[in-house]
Each structure stands twice: as C-alpha cells, then as structure tokens.
Design a protein that fits this description.
The complex is a heterotrimer of chains A (107), B (479) and C (463).
Chain A lengths: L4 H10 L9 H15 L21 E2 L12 H4 L3 E2 L2 E5 L18
Antiparallel strand pairs in A: 2-3
Chain B lengths: L5 E11 L36 E2 H13 L3 E2 L2 E2 L1 E5 L9 E5 L5 E10 L5 E13 L3 E3 L6 E5 L6 E7 L6 H17 L12 E10 L10 E6 L2 H20 L8 E5 L4 E4 L12 E2 L6 E2 L2 H9 L5 H12 L3 H7 L3 H14 L2 H19 L10 H12 L5 H13 L4 H7 L8 H14 L1 H8 L6 H11 L6 H11 L2
Parallel strand pairs in B: 13-14
Antiparallel strand pairs in B: 1-11, 1-12, 3-7, 4-17, 5-6, 5-16, 7-8, 8-11, 9-10, 12-13, 14-15
Chain C lengths: L3 H9 L2 H10 L8 E4 L16 E5 L26 H8 L3 E6 L33 H8 L5 E6 L5 H7 L2 E4 L19 E6 L2 H11 L32 E5 L9 H16 L3 E5 L7 H16 L17 H12 L2 H14 L5 H23 L4 E5 L14 H5 L6 H6 L3 E9 L2 E8 L5 H14 L8
Parallel strand pairs in C: 2-3, 2-4, 7-8, 7-9
Antiparallel strand pairs in C: 1-3, 4-6, 5-6, 5-10, 9-11, 10-11
Classes of the chains: A alpha+beta (107), B alpha+beta (479), C alpha/beta (463).
Chain lengths: 107, 479, 463
C-alpha cells in the first residue's frame, strides 16, 4: 500500500484541510515513510483477538440529571452570532429537516 | 411496455425518543425555545466535553426494538460517523454502526388476499443522536444554525427491502407510527419531524432478478407524500431503464408543493464516513433480566390487538383497523362494548358519533363527558328498543351538555318509545276511526296499506310509538 | 492522607515564592507558560493544597485563563466550563498561576510544535524539555511550582519528566476524569501529574483522582491513599517482585542509560525487592500501533474545530472555503500531518488493514501486561526514554521523533499506570527510570518509587 498524491488530496478533502499543491509532495513522502513502519503489523497473528474488551460497560445517566452549565455566554466564544443563531456562509442546497445535501447528510 | 417491472422498497425510519433530556447530556429536549439555549458544553461540541448515555433513551430504544419484534443484543457499540456540516457540532455523529442495539424484527402491515399476514422484516434498530437545524430563510446572506435539537435521542429503524408498492410503503410507515405510539416511546409525528422516513427504492425486471441500483428519497413529511413519491420515482426509474439509461445511486428530495422528486445536488462520491468505535463510550451492555423486564412492561401491540378484536368482537377488518389506530380509541371501545354488552353497536357509535364529536370538540376521549359507562347505558336503551336510533342521537347530544343517566333524560324529554299495548291499540283505533276507507281496504286484504297506517299511528303518537310493536299489532288486523 | 514530608516543602512554596522564582530564574525566557495569572491568590479554601501554586497544561479547560492547546485554532479561547481535574485542585485550595506551553494539541515529544514557539529545557536551554507537556515539566524543573498538571497520550508526561529531571505520573486510564481535557486520542488520553518529588506527585494525583459522572470512561472506584508512608526498616520493599522486561533493554540501548537502570534495579534489590526477568514480546509493535490509533482518533476529535461555534475562523463566501481556510490556517504542520494520517487509516478500504488490525494488536499488548502481572510480578521497571533530552531541531524526521516514545506508549495502549523519576545523569542531563503497575495499583508504584528516590544517589553514569 502506497500513498499517492491523489490519496493525499482525497483525505485532505475529507478532513477539510486546505492544502496547497506545493505541500503535497512532502506529505506523500512523509505519510509513506510513516506507514512503511506500520507494515510490521500485517505480519502479526491477530486471529481470535476480541475486538471489545469484555469488562467495560457504558455507565447510564438519569434522564433528570442537569447539564453542565456554561459560565460564559455563547456570544463570548462564537465567531459569528445573530439573534442567538450561529452564522455560516449561505448553504446552497438543503432539505427541510436538516437533510442537508451539499456537505453531507444528517440522520 | 414489455417488462413488468418489480418495485423494491426499503424504509429507514428515524424516530425521536421522548426523553426529558438529550441522549448524551442533560439539556432539555423541549421544542420552541430560543435558538441555542438548550445547549451545553457537550451538545455544542466544546473542547474537552464528553458524552454520557441517557438511561431513559436506552430504555425507550429497547422498548421500541422489542415492540418491533427484534432481538435486543446484550452488547451494542456506539461509533462515530464522521462528516462535516454546520449543524453537526463535533464533526461526527455518535451512532451505532456494526453492532446495533437490536436486529431481526418484523412488522405486519395487513392481511393478504389468502388471509395470511403481510410481513415486512425489520433489519435493525440502532440508537443515535440527532443533528441541529440549519435555518436558511431567517437571514438574507447567511444560514443560521440552531443546536437545540442536536443530541436529541433517535432510533433508526431499517427495514429489509420487502416492500413492493407505494401503498405498502405508506402502510408500513403508518404501522410503524402506531407501534411506536403504542410502545409509548415517541410522539411519532411526521409533520413535526419526530418521525422521519427515508425511502430506498429500486426496480428490477422480475422478482427473481438481482436488485437494481437504488436511490434514496428524503424530505417526506406525510404518509401520503411517501406513497406519491414512490410512484413518481418508480415511473422515473422505469422511464430511464426503458430508454436504455442507467440508474445513478443518489439522494433525491421530494418537493411537496410541486409533487415532484428531484436529485439533491450532493457530491455522493465524496461520502466516506470513516466509522470507528466511539472511544468516549464503552459498549452498551444490557442483561437478560433488563430486557425481559422491558418486554413484560409492553402493552398489547397493534397486531395482537387486531387479532383479538377480530376474534372476540366479530367485527370487519376495516372496522378493527379503525378502532385500533390509537390505543386510547381501542381501549375506549372495549369499555363501551363491555358497558353496553353490544360490541357491534359500540363499534358503530365509536367510529361514527363519538369520533365526530371528539374531532369537532378538540377534546380527547378521556376528557369526553359521555364516558364509556354513560355511552354503554345509552346503547343498552337503543338496543332494547326503549329509545329509537334518532332519539339516542338526540340523547347523546344532551349528554355532552349535562350530567344524568340517559334513561332519566329520555323520560324527561319524552323520548322513551311507547310499547304498552293498550296505548298503542288506542292510537290504532283512533287512526282506523279517522280513516274508515283505508281501514276497510286494509281489513279486506290490501296489505300494502300497512306502511301508510304505521306512519299515521307514529304521527298520532308524536313519534313515541315503537314502530316494531305498531307493525305487529297492525299485522294482526290485516285481512 | 497527609504526610509531613510532603506538606512541608509544598506549604513553604507559596504563590509569592513562585513569582520570585519565576523572575530570578528568567523563566520567561524558557517560554514555559502561555498565560500567567499574576493576580492569582490563595482562595482561602482549606485543603491539602491550600495556597499552593500549580501550573496547568494548556489543553485542560480553565475558567479564567485561555485554553488554546498551543494552537492558532483556539487562540484566545476561554472555556465556559472547567476541567474536573482543575476543579479538584482548586477545591483542595491550589492556586492556578498559569497555563503551560505544549506541542499543539499534545502532538509531539519536544514542545517544539507549539504555535507560540518552543519551550526550552531549564537544565540546558539548547535542549528540548520533552513533550508534549514540556511547559509543565519546565515549570516544575525551573522551581516555579512544585506541582503541575500535564497530559499523556503516549508518554507526554513521563518523557518530559525524564528530560527535566523531575517526577511525572500517568495514572491508570479511568483514574482521573478526562472531562475538560481537550481530546487528542480519547482512548489513550490521561491527565498526568508532575511533582518535584514522588510524594508530591502522589499527593497531586490523589487529589485529582476519582469517579466523575461527566466522563463515561471514568472508573467508579474509591480513591486509595497514594502518598507513600516514609520508608521504614532496612528492607522496606521486601516481598515486592519487580519485573525487568527484556524488550525495554535492547542491545542498542545507550549503555549509560542501561547502567543507570541496572544501578536502580540493584538498589531495589537492596531495598528488599526481588527483580525478575520478564518478557513483553509485542513491545516493538507499540509505536506502529500507537501511530495508527492516535492519529485516527485525533482526525475525528479535531473535526470540531470548524470555525462555526468557537475558535479561529477564516471568513469566506461558501462553507467549504470557510472550513478549509479556518482549519488549514489554524492547524500547524504536525497536527495537519496526523489528521491526514488518521483520516487515511480510517478511510474506505484501509480501515481493516490499519485501524482494526492496530486495535487487535493493542489488545495483544494489553494481554501481555495482564499475564506478566498475573504471574506474580507487582511492578515493571524500565528506562523512560532511549536518550536524554535532545537538542532543539535535532529530530527532524517525524518517525524518528515518534521513536522517542518507544518505552512509554505501551502503558497508554494497555491503560496501566506508569511514572518516571530521575535515576542518574548522562553528560549532565537527567535520565529517567520508569515504573509500570497493574491497573489501579498506583499506591504500590509510589511506594517503590519513594523508597528508590530516598536511597538512590543521582550521579553521572560510569559505564
């Protein structure tokens, strides 16, 4: 498995990292260098290794337990807010119930 | 058309669970608050915040799964579904993926022509968090994000691709709503978005062919929209394939106003959700005792009720379905049937006068002044012939306004039917005396005059005579 | 539990003392702090740490000072809620005097990856203090504070503790709440403690430990007394079995570091312990496993820095450009590299080969620790790092830098507690020895470490 410049562009898109073309060759080289060290894992026999440790269980919270409070207003940390809404650039396409189409889709 | 295309449909139903607080934090799930006020470090996705699972959400999801006949697993695993969208605060949605809460259920959506139930299999039920809302019409140049809904608990219920028509898709969705309401896990309201249905649809040349490429239709906000959208998309896919084209796997949006289905302008190819187990949440573990307890606490569910009503009350299929639409209606019907001892009349009253009254008044059945016991007493009067059907309706209207037993009201208003022979014979004698010609012809064998004579007797009694009795008595005098 | 030998040096080290030390020793020049609270004063809270100044790594949420994770993407961000560990320190009376420098989002082993410039090693300003918690280590090593919080994902407390000649502890995963610790790799992250001495580090850890219902991975267990009692008798460690895992003493290990470890092991024997050779055969797989799991989790954990709700934002006329602009401007080189790496190993077609396999090998590593501890071994002893502090800019290849975690990442993968303490000097630079213990057995670890600390002279290597 070898990382190509196209792979780097693809994962940069998935991760919403704006890369310049000039950054790509070095990243291809570095990622291949790092992943080369991972190949040793392919030789390990992992058959029969359980994927989730059997002793862990999610604790459950009572429905009535209150949320942690915000000791600072949302306006104090929000980059852009109006009438209580967080603002983002106009979304070009959308469905009515958050079935948002241009950047992924919610539940 | 040479090919008899088969339509193949699977539904994904998202249902908001009616908890007080969100799935991973203590924020309220209430509607209508000012934007972003029901938010905290967790559902805002602030640096350092962590999710903690709501016990009530687990309980409701378990109930929903059991109500759908699923096997609830002793261990299920939350995963992260990674994608960027402004209404998704963490950049990932916490959702169960390869180890869902429950699998392999079944929903009966009706009875087939051969009398066997029509079963749609449920593939899986999993828990996840809802996203926030993107509001596009609030400000001119920007979109606005409200995260009050972010973190509302959901179950996603995925069917097998067993559905074959738009009508079946609608029936499945309606039955789903009914089951979720019976199980008391959700408001299950499509208009308000607490029940959301996405339809996966493909076509194939015959029922033995491999499945075709499917499209997904979103933005369906009513049951009839589901049925309409399926038919539109079916016709489109047939057109495409019959003109030599291929179906593109894509997301479609249904436009209710224009009644059309059109592609969402999405970049499907770039979707790669990079699921991996959520490291902030250990697996959800439910022991058998817990699951059994949830199962035992379920009420009688629609399919069981349907079978029982059909068996116990000798009612028609359509009437039974109408009576069990809502649990409260079915329960009220049963109380009325018990009180009156006449299920047939109880069903007619419930589906006719009572529902009309409830709908007109906006009151719930529980608040209705004509309680099951009062209605039962009224039906008894009607069934016993003590009041006419018309009088019974008048009495019902009175009973909505005032207290009192129907018998007392009927007496007071003179609505009891006169069945006493001497009174009835008196009126008949008077009618005969006043109409000697007709009386003679009747006595001479002209039986067709009986109807006219009954009418005259009823008129003389000012409607209070029991027409059955009058007929009997007149019949004895016929020649 | 209060111990006179803990309380006295701590109690004498007041906030005023911290500031005079800060000015005297030109700590400003070390760039150890990203924010200072010169007005911070004793709160009047009675507690085990009443009036004691502490420094907090900048990835722990604090209410008055910013929490930036040494990243441009959180420049100026002040958290509206407080990390549980910080609150517990304040509840015990501690005074937060500043936030310390770190590798951006804790990704690094030298504190050179800070958006606000590197921190220098107080013992040799041409060298790194280690990382990623280099600022907190330098704050303790320079004498400004005796207690500081750091965080660990693969050795980010123990390695800088070793480089700076102080004590650094990584607790059992789940012992200390992660609520308010800005996530790097959630399944590996721990809040850790730096102390001037073993007992002070133990007191610090005891103070911040305990169940927290805001963290689902927090252990619902009582907190034992961790501060070791003063050693008594000739052989205070009699009955203790210390394992010496051979994989941590490879042939190419710097012989001077090996010699220091050998001297420490001999001292443990002198204290009554039995030293036993053991094996943890999958040790050499730990760094590859770590550098798959940690970046994978990081790529997801860092998705929230999108410029929508908080943090840096580059305005643009469309969403995609806003995201890409904000994130590429906000994240430094190493963070970008790890997000790309993590996104890659999780992406379609690679998940099974990388992430899933790495998780399985991680389970193997955990099982090996469990079986060694089940065999009657109470603690493990190893070198903390393969080298002493390196020079600023010395390690330019990312993977070479990653290998400086080679002896520390295993404890994070297995979730076991571990700590580093000074055991000697190489060319005047401190060398750390590491104890590792079974899950939730911090007290035994502290007991052995304190006995060793009390009896071992810190001297130059003779090998």
């Amino acid at each position: 498995m070898s990382v190509t410049p196209e792979d780097v562009r693809h994962v940069a898109t998935l991760a919403r990292l704006g890369l310049s073309e000039g950054q790509i060759p070095a990243l291809v080289q570095q990622l291949n260098g790092i992943l080369g060290h991972m190949d040793v894992l392919q030789q390990v026999d992992v058959s029969g290794v359980p994927l989730t440790p059997p002793d862990q269980a999610a604790p459950l919270r009572p429905d009535a337990r209150p949320a942690d409070v915000l000791l600072r207003s949302r306006e104090a940390f929000a980059p852009a807010m109006r009438d209580g809404f967080f603002l983002v650039p106009r979304l070009t396409t959308h469905g009515a119930q958050g079935a948002s189409a241009d950047e992924g889709d919610a539940a | 058309m040479s090919t008899n295309w088969e339509l193949v449909i699977g539904l994904e139903v998202h249902c908001q669970l009616k908890t007080r607080s969100k799935i991973f934090c203590g924020c309220a799930t209430s509607f209508g608050e000012a934007p972003n006020t029901n938010t905290c470090p967790v559902c805002l996705g602030l640096p350092g915040a962590l999710p903690v699972l709501n016990a009530e959400a687990v309980q409701l999801a378990t109930r929903a799964s059991l109500a759908l006949g699923c096997t609830v697993h002793d261990a299920s695993v939350f995963a992260r579904k990674n994608y960027f969208y402004p209404d998704l605060p963490k950049g990932y949605q916490i959702s169960q993926f390869d180890r869902p809460l429950a699998t392999e259920g079944a929903v009966v959506i009706g009875v087939q022509a051969d009398g066997t139930p029509r079963v749609i299999r449920v593939h899986r039920v999993h828990m996840e968090e809802d996203a926030g809302k993107s509001v596009h019409d609030r400000f001119r140049d920007v979109s606005a994000i409200d995260l009050n809904r972010a973190g509302t608990p959901l179950v996603e219920i995925v069917s097998e691709p067993d559905i074959r028509t738009g009508a079946e898709a609608g029936a499945y969705a309606r039955r789903m709503k009914q089951i979720l309401e019976y199980a008391d896990v959700s408001d299950a309201n499509m208009e308000e978005g607490s029940l959301r249905v996405d339809v996966n649809i493909s076509i194939r040349p015959s029922s033995t062919s491999p499945f075709g490429t499917k499209t997904e239709i979103k933005n369906l906000n009513s049951f009839s929209a589901i049925e309409r959208a399926v038919e539109i998309e079916f016709a489109r896919q047939v057109r495409v394939l019959e003109s030599g084209g291929t179906i593109e796997q894509q997301t479609m949006l249904y436009d209710d106003k224009r009644n059309e289905v059109r592609p969402a302008r999405s970049k499907e190819g770039s979707h790669d959700y990079r699921y991996f187990p959520e490291p902030d949440l250990p697996p959800l573990r439910l022991n058998a005792e817990y699951i059994d307890r949830q199962r035992a606490a379920l009420p009688e569910l629609p399919e069981a009720k349907r079978r029982r009503f059909a068996a116990d009350y000798a009612l028609g299929e359509v009437e039974v379905e109408q009576l069990i639409v809502e649990q409260a209606l079915a329960a009220h019907f049963e109380a009325v049937a018990r009180a009156s001892g006449d299920a047939r009349r109880a069903a007619n009253w419930m589906l006719g006068t009572v529902l009309a009254s409830v709908n007109a008044s906006g009151r719930s059945l529980a608040e209705h002044p004509v309680t099951a016991e009062r209605l039962g007493a009224l039906i008894k009067l009607e069934a016993g012939g003590e009041v006419s059907n018309t009088a019974a309706r008048q009495l019902f209207t009175m009973m909505e306004q005032e207290a009192g037993e129907p018998l007392d009201l009927a007496k007071r208003e003179g609505l009891l039917q006169v069945r006493d022979d001497s009174a009835l014979v008196g009126w008949i004698d008077e009618v005969f005396a006043e109409n000697p010609a007709e009386a003679a012809r009747f006595a001479g064998g002209e039986k067709k005059l009986q109807g006219v004579l009954v009418g005259l007797v009823m008129k003389k009694s000012k409607g209070s005579a029991d027409p059955k009795k009058v007929n009997q008595l007149l019949g004895a005098r016929a020649g | 539990m209060s111990q006179p030998d803990v309380k006295t040096p701590l109690a004498q080290h007041t906030v005023a003392h911290a500031w005079s030390r800060f000015d005297e020793a030109d700590v400003q020049g070390l760039n150890a702090f990203l924010a200072l609270d010169r007005d911070a004063a004793a709160s009047g809270v009675e507690g085990t740490l009443a009036g004691i100044p502490v420094a907090i790594k900048d990835n722990l949420a604090t209410l008055t000072l910013p929490t930036t994770c040494a990243s441009r993407v959180l420049e100026g961000y002040v958290s509206p809620f407080e990390a549980t560990a910080v609150r517990k320190l304040r509840d015990a009376g501690a005074v937060v005097i500043g936030k310390t420098n770190m590798d951006e989002f804790a990704m690094g082993s030298s504190t050179e990856n800070s958006a606000y410039g590197p921190t220098l090693n107080p013992l040799d300003r041409s060298r790194v203090p280690g990382g990623s918690s280099g600022g907190s280590a330098a704050a303790v090593a320079s004498g400004v504070v005796r207690l500081a919080l750091g965080s660990e994902t693969g050795g980010s407390v123990r390695q800088p503790a070793a480089f700076c000649g102080i004590v650094g502890v990584k607790p059992t995963y789940g012992r200390v709440s992660r609520y308010g610790l800005v996530a790097y790799a959630s399944s590996l992250d721990n809040v850790g403690v730096f102390g001037a001495t073993v007992a002070e580090a133990a007191l610090g850890l005891e103070t911040i430990s305990g169940h927290d219902h805001f963290d689902s991975t927090s252990a619902d267990l009582p907190v034992p007394s961790m501060v070791p009692a003063a050693a008594s008798g000739e052989r205070p460690l009699a009955g203790l079995v210390v394992g010496k895992p051979r994989e941590y003493f490879p042939d190419n290990l710097d012989p001077r570091i090996a010699a220091h470890c050998e001297r420490a092991l001999q001292q443990l024997i002198a204290l009554g312990a039995e030293v036993r050779d053991v094996s943890l055969p999958s040790t050499d797989l730990a760094v590859p496993v770590y550098y798959i799991i940690a970046p994978a989790e990081a790529s997801s954990n860092l998705a929230r820095y999108d410029g929508v709700r908080y943090g840096a934002r580059v305005e643009a006329d469309n969403l995609r450009s806003m995201y890409e602009g904000s994130r590429s401007k906000g994240f430094g080189e190493e963070v970008t590299r790890r997000i790309l790496l993590g996104t890659y190993v999780l992406s379609a077609g690679y998940y099974d080969a990388y992430y899933k396999r790495a998780q399985a090998v991680r389970t193997l590593i955990t099982q090996e620790f469990a079986s060694v501890f089940a065999s009657g071994v109470h603690l493990l002893f190893t070198p903390t790092t393969p080298t002493p502090a390196f020079r600023l800019g010395e390690l330019s290849d990312p993977y070479e830098m990653y290998l400086s975690d080679i002896f520390t990442v295993t404890a994070n993968l297995a979730g076991v507690p571990a700590m580093s303490q000074p055991i000697g000097l190489v060319d005047g630079l401190p060398v750390g020895g590491q104890f590792m213990a079974p899950h939730f057995d911090e007290p035994t670890m502290f007991r052995a470490a304190a006995a060793l600390e009390a009896s071992l002279s810190i001297e130059e290597a003779t090998a």
